[in-house]
Design goal:
This protein is about 25% helix and about 20% strand. The protein is of the alpha/beta class. This is Metallophosphoesterase.
Length: about 290
Amino acid sequence: MSALQAIAGRIGSRSSGGQVDLLRYLPLSERRGHLYLVGDLHGEYGSLMLALKALSFNPALDRVLFTGDMHDRGRNSAACLELLRQPWVDSVLGNHELMLLNSVDDDGSLSKTRNSMYAGWMANGGEWIEETSREERSAWRRRILERVPLYWIVERRDGRRVMVCHAETDPLLLPDVVGLRNMPVSLGALHSSPTLWGRHTLAVSVDETISSQRKKQLLPPLEGALFAVHGHSQLKLASWVANRLFIDTGAVYGNLLTLVDVDHALPGRPGGVQAWDIASEKLIGYAATNLLF
């Protein structure tokens, strides 16, 4: 039994509310055009559409994969969730998707019980959901459960793999993720999951009391993938920590919506990283910051 099976079995036996897949895998054989990894969208549907237009995005060929947190706080959360109807759109689960899943019942009614995450969700941009219909909410819940895993592994054109999850990787899950061993994970197992909530990697990387040598010992390069891509923790610019790239650059607060061309980005090097500048409404290319390399 893997570590994940032990965790999921122990917690899942006393929890309810649904399950999500641990992972999905996108081999090169199922790709045709560009694959863009997009930072936390948080309801900024219009900015995404402008960015994709500037990239000459072709939905018949190209794909986007979000780092989670597609909704809340921004101007059009409903339209962002409706994107999950499209065959060219995928996402990993973020903590905001988890709050939705724990606050919306299967029939679309809102669960305002003590055991739900409802109050926390309302305090973090979820109030828009109260203006939507039960039918809409039920469809969004079902679609997230069916289509949105904790991790995506995607194959580049050079055959190397890239890992995507929302906040940071969970060492207990990595053997199954790298081994492409999918299994269902109970929502109850995710309430304190590093995959959805963790900030340890970035906290260590910017801690001035820790020497550079010690940081490299604490944060060795991730094995099993060329690099990993995360959102969750807002930064001014996309930033590398060894071979982990953090791309939540605060689009919902008028900063940048970062998009990574998965075939051209390389750890610690310029290239492959672009962003839609919300203020100037222009597409810009920039070199991600090296916080630790």
